[in-house]
User: Fold this.
Amino acid sequence: MKHTQYKISFNIKPILLGFLACFSFVLTNEVTLAAEGKTINFATSSSIEPYFFVDKKGGLQYELLNAALEMSHLQLGEITFATNRRALRLVKTKKIDCIINAPSNSDGLFLTQSLIDYQNSVFFLTKNKLKIDTIQDLKHYSLIGFQNADHFLGEEFFDLSKTHKNYNEIASQQNQVLMLFSERIQAIILERQIFNYYRNQLNDRIKFPYEVTQVILFDHSPRYIACHDPDTTALVDEAISHLKQTNQYQQILLYAEQGNYKLTEQIK
Assistant:
């Protein structure tokens, strides 16, 4: 009797791929669930009103960041206010998770997308009739920038700042505004909303409320968040993406333009 052997064969590849896909899905869900409720701590400049207020929870960027994290079931932890250089050092030494408004060249850190854009500008007293049309024109006048401005305003300004004999940077942006109106300096470089905020706050201390000219020499400046951990960076980046896809993002910006920086309760 002739015996015929039959080989039972099947393709294991689809089964293996299906198993791997299922495992990946489960693992992703576990990571997502583990991330939910995660508290993330931040450092930022101590002179950044109205984007953050040191003495209370509020400000334009505070509201944007808090809304983004809440939407992604993350917790906004402590915000440490420091000079730009110290804030960067706190994150690089892993004492704080992330820095808000990180330079795009923050070596060793991982950047999110921009949470918001700043408009840095040159301001001078209109009565002085300064001729400022280009970055190179700045070398003719005494000038004060915010701390680390040379790292935020592009290569041309960086080069000029190294040879400009009457250029300095200071941490207090409020003092920049005071120095301009007291005519101790000819021009200052400051972000538009920050300048308007301090000008209004300091009305009673400004002897002569001179008219001011704003000159826009710099592109919009993206405000990145940088973290020492790539996983935390990915969580924050995804949270920002989600917020930008909602009406809440534009509502927060609109309220801020109206001078209202405590927004969370109104929008909800």
